[in-house]
Amino acid sequence: MTSSSGNPTEDETCKRFVLPALVQTGWNVEEQVKSQYRINRGRIQPTARRHHQQRPLVADYVLEYSDGLPLAVVEAKRSRIDPAEGFEQAKRYAELLDAPFAYSTNGTRTIEIDYRTGLISEISEFPTPEQLWARYRDDRSLADDAHADLASAPFILTRNWDGTPKDPRYYQRNAINRAVQAIAKGQRRLLLVLATGTGKTLVSAQIVAKLWNANWPEKGRRPRVLYLADRNILIDQPKDDYFTEMFGEAVHRLGQGRVQKSRNIYFALYQSLSQPGGAQDFYTRFDRHFFDLIIVDECHRGSAAEGSQWREILEYFEPAVQLGLTATPISRKDVDTYHYFGDAIYEYSLAQGIRDGFLAPYRVRNVRIDIDLYGWRPDAGQLDMYGREIPDELYGPKDFERVVAILDRTDEVARYLTEYLHKTGRMHKTIVFCQTNDHAMRMVEALTRANADLSQRYGHKWVCRITGDDHEAGRERLDEFRDDASEVPVIAVTSRMLSTGVDIPTVRNIVLFRVIRSMPEFKQTIGRGTRLSPETGKFAFDIIDFVDATRLFYDPKFDGPPLRRLRDEADPDGSFITFPEDLDVEPDPDPDEAAEPEAGYESHDGGDLPPMITDGEEIDDIRAEGRTLYIDDVEVNILGSAVYITETDGTGLRLRLVRLEQFIKDKLHELDLSPNQLLAQWAHSWSRKELRERLEAIGISTADLGELTGRPDADAIDLLIYLGWGLPVLSRSERALRFKLQHRDFLESFAPEARAILDRVLAQYSAHDESELEVQAMDSPAYQEFGTVVEIAELFGDRSGAGLRTAVDHLRAQLYEAS
After folding, report:
1. Which intervals carry biased composition (Acidic residues) (predicted)?
2. Which end of the chain is flanked by fewer CB atoms within 10 Å, N or C?
3. What 3-state DSSP class applies to 203?
4. What is the DSSP string of 605-646?
């Protein structure tokens, strides 16, 4: 379509000028030119319980040499618009897609941005595919033809459950291409850092696919790959969901039986390759040069520690290319992911995933327990439930469940969670992280008591414990919990078991009732909720924090590009040696000791105990012996809670928490509307709808304000004004009463039968919400005694309803008059 002024639209400019120009220089429009290339999904903005999704980023054209290998982005503008206006947009898209060239054009003039040389120039025509590919190869140091062939090797097409192609997302393609190009150039140690929930398994499978299709490392032979992890679920899920589908019988899982050397892609637990007690290690039955590529999943664990038993496996297969995958690299003196694998060749953070709309944003409900704030001290000579004397000390959160277990504290948290789920959804999948396995069992018992109706209906499957102590029964419960088609279990209670490697997109609540001091553990734990589940309506999740673990959100190390702090120290000769600084708040458990047994579960909670408030000899004895004192009949209360949401900072690279009340206040002031103007818009149906849409677009859902503020009895507009300007809140009943007093003449102008209708409107509004202030609301049981809507309309003068609508409109306008 062309505008009346003769100025072609952007779409027409593309069809008449841009595409023909690409075809003229040899680009295959069907295979190499991807039009309207959707880069991301658009950020999801959470409100108290809902969400609003922003528009996705869409590039007009992406030029690919081969499928999945973008060389350039083309941004088109209308023919009369200066192409410089698309310059920054083209740059942004090219940077996201890891493409070294970008073009902004209006069909007659074209600007080229060359990231290889840093030059910006106006060109007369697009380069040919061969010219751009040669420049790309030069940029990525792929001069050798074999290296170029490997870099341009195709993916293996896989499909989702509904038959749609399982195309890698833009950042997954970036990670795949970066890894394959590094391998082509001879790099032997590779590290990919991808946030939890961003598809590291798909990335690893497609890296292998490219190597497979290119006959790497030598013509006539497929690569031999070893995929290593330290938990069964980290092995079984990628093997069954990706690799077997893509490579069929070439896939094999190694155990302790006969050595099978005729396959190509092997999966193994460290535990199955390593023999304790001095026996010959299973991995030594393979030649050191047998494997071409080793993929180390969750590489911050297991073999991360230098000198560990599991590190020996990687050192034995030193000739192989070794690729580490993790969301949480560690940089400490004793465990340093970077020291072994090198700096990350590609990183994709949690903030970027949320900004792109690929990961679910989260709200944080920070709940304060009185004895956690003030501590608890026993009476003189007080005994625990089993008759043991309790040392006279002041106990705090770091002691609870380790030294003293206050049963009422667990019961109070269970009561709060029950009320919360009643408001938000009792069948919403929830993971509760407790301090120990024993604590997890008591939480199950407390939640069962608090939800006896559901426990009885579902045969005690509504809530279950999944820990290392639950063995195969726990495995069955975990499989049921992960199954989208399984209604129960709804709540899984654990200590550490589910903090990593478990893919459960439907989880809507992450409950922290476990002290967490390690940044990697914290990021892994909250990562259990970041996966989206559009088919079940899950676009955001909630973190309910009882132990102030979310203080780690404020740590400068949280999210953004993973930090590695270095320090220089002088040796005796005066030369400087560089050391990585410890980035963790608290040391992680020893990787070997914390490993799960072959059954696939943790054998104990593992890890160093947090330092206690107390330090008496009796307490040290209790701790050393692993005893816990159990105390009943302690008054425990929830002092209050505050709700926070996630925002990115000015750079868009780092997440920060924002108090929801402050977020709403800031957004309201951005609307540049006074309280009186808000009231005026709220008073009319059409303008109220427009206002709601504007508020939804900036992340404010009026339907959630009652729950947020604890004032479900108040009108949403009064809550907005309270949050924005701090003015007193009127309940709906108070607003209705004020209307009756101030506008008595209006009400008395109607006949008694008609006035009774208006009184009922006000009563319904007081009991429910502003939707009752509409004529259509009268088609409900609340008005049955007055007859049909047509009969009600007759009381206001005519059957058409004009008089009734006028009366309700006037009532509504006067109800919301500013005072």
Report:
1. 581-596
2. N
3. helix
4. --SPPPPPS---HHHHHHHHHT--EEE------EEEEEEEEE
Beta bridge partners of 645: 363, 658
Strand-pair category, 430-434 with 509-513: parallel
Summarize pLDDT for 562-604 with one digit per residue, the tens: 444 444 444 455 444 444 444 333 333 433 333 333 333 333 3
Separation of alpha carbons 465 and 646, rounded Å:
30
- Strands 576-580 and 566-570 come out as antiparallel
Q: Which among 128, 126, 125, 129 has a CA at the least distance from the CA of 152?
A: 129
CA dist 269 and 596 (Å) reads 10
Nearest to 416 by CA among 432, 395, 401, 400: 432
d(CA 317, CA 715): 67
Q: Which residues contact 67 (CB under 8 A, 6 or more apart)?
A: 31, 154, 155
- Measure the CA–CA gap between 788 and 799, rounded to whole angstroms: 11
CA 25 to chain centre: 43
Angle at 159 between CA 157 and CA 163, to 5 degrees: 135
Question: Which DSSP category does 36 fall into?
Answer: E
Which element (helix H / strand E) includes 305? none
What is the β-pairing status of strands 101-105 and 346-348? unpaired
Q: How many CA atoms does the CB half-sphere of 44 hold within 13 Å?
A: 26
Residue-wise pLDDT tens digits, 417-438? 999 999 889 999 999 999 999 9
What pLDDT is recorded for position 569? 45
Residues with Cβ within 8 Å of residue 368, at least 6 apart in sequence: 638, 639, 640, 641
In the 3-class helix/strand/coil scheme, how is 50-97 assigned residue by residue? CEEECCCCEEEEEEEEECCEEEEEEEECCCCCCHHHHHHHHHHHHHHC
Q: Strand 110-114 vs strand 119-123: parallel, antiparallel, or unpaired?
A: antiparallel
What is the residue type of 549?
A: A
pTM of the model: 0.82
Residues 334 and 305: beta-carbon distance below 8 Å? yes
Percentage of the chain exceeding pLDDT 90: 58
* Dihedral angle computed from the Cα positions of residues 720, 723, 725 and 730, in that order, rounded to the nearest 10 degrees: 60
Q: Is the dihedral of CA 445, 450, 451, 456 positive or negative?
A: positive
The number of residues in the chain equals 819
Report helix, strand or coil for 519.
Answer: helix
Alpha carbons 729 and 455: distance in angstroms, whole number:
40
Cβ atoms of 281 and 212 within 8 Å: the answer is no
Cα-to-chain-centroid distance, residue 316: 37
Cα 132 to Cα 110: distance, rounded to the nearest angstrom: 16
- The values of phi and psi at residue 79, to 5°, are -60, -25
Place of tokens 């309207």: 36
Which DSSP string corresponds to 538-586? B--EEEEESS-GGGGGGSTTSSSSPP--EEEEE-TTS-EEEEEPP--SS
Q: What percent of the residues of the chain are helix, what percent strand, and what percent coil, each to the nearest 5? A: 40, 20, 40
Cα–Cα separations (whole angstroms), residue 420 to 417, 440, 508 = 5, 19, 12
Q: What would the two tokens of residue 211 be?
A: 């190597």
CB atoms within 10 A of CB 597: 14
User: Tokens 């414990």 — which residue?
Assistant: 465
Give the confidence band of 28 by pLDDT, cuts at 50, 70, 90: very high
**Residue appearing with tokens 């697009």:** 126
3-state class of 442 per DSSP? Answer: helix
CB atoms within 10 A of CB 135: 18
